[in-house]
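Comment thread on ticket #2218

A.B. wrote:
> Attaching the input chain for the structure job we discussed in standup.
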Amino acid sequence: MSLEHNKALARRLYEEVFGRGNMVAADEILAGSCVNHGPGSPPQVGTEFIKRQAFALRSAIPDLEVVLEDQIAEGAEVASRWTGRGTHTGALPLPTGAVAPTGAHIEFSEIRVDRVEGEQITESWFIPDRFTLWQQLGIIPKP
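C.D. wrote:
> Ran it. Output below, let me know if you need it in another format.
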């Protein structure tokens, strides 16, 4: 596939799944055996992990707006930087427990590298800016 095809596939993940809450699109975009690598957790296989992430964010931030800031593609891999912003009006589940709605306008970023094989993303590595998000939610103090 072309570099532009690979970039468009990664863009669909942010815009449709996270931005619009279209969970059906996750099964079109990601291979059923897709491996997701995130910080501090073992690799997750399949599409359910991404769907849970997107659902949790969209439930906590129903007006979530997703903006794709940058993309670079080489070979089968696409590196993307995206920003999410909106109002925290729902509970946000975290490993330590749910964060009650704060009503705060929040903005956070994520950098992600997706590997594309054929028509789907087969492996992803992501680094979300949790530190900034947690500061805005009052979980950790701002400097």
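A.B. wrote:
> Thanks. Noting for the ticket: Residues 3-20 form the longest helix (18 residues).
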